[in-house]
Predict the 3D structure of the following.
Amino acid sequence: MNTRLDRAPTQGTLIHRFQSVTEPLDWVRLFPAAQPVELEIGSGDGGFLYRLACADPGRNFVGVERLLGRARKLDRRARAAGLANLRLLRIEAGYLLRYLVPAESLQVVHINFPDPWPKARHARHRLVSQGFPATLHRLLAPGGVVYLRTDYGPYALQMREVFGECAQFAAVETPAALAGILTEFEAAFNAQGKATFHAAYQRD
């Protein structure tokens, strides 16, 4: 299946230009090929998503990253590699999930090292909290999976608690090949001896 840059957006960038922030996204229009869609929330420098897109041209990958410099870095790298199965969205993740992602349109959601908000009074700001599994259940296709990573033990515990309390998700293993694809942040922390906590949950 051809997912090379000759079918990429005509504006010469993989950073999506929103025409509307009220109408749900149409993955078929966003990508040149209709393929399963994986979403990464908080792409950072983009190495993780880049390697996924290179390794699996039969899937479409969407990264959410607010910082323009980081998005542009990944955009340049992906276009230089000729990838057309990757798109970047510069938008607040909560709003995107709530209003713009079509129901049951995602096969996989990756959440790598979300802001841990370590202070107790700020913990309510964490992305993965009560109600979040219900949001993902609506957006994931049946059998879809969310993969979680953090280096902060209390947040790992919270992730497991909120998904463990949701009967619509079942714990599954993170494939070794996927766990072996590290983010830049993760590689640096692992080099310092800090562990990565992995969790994965599949919707019914």
Notes: The first helix runs from residue 27 to 30. Residues 36-203 form a domain with the Rossmann fold fold (CATH 3.40.50.150). The chain has one domain: 36-203.
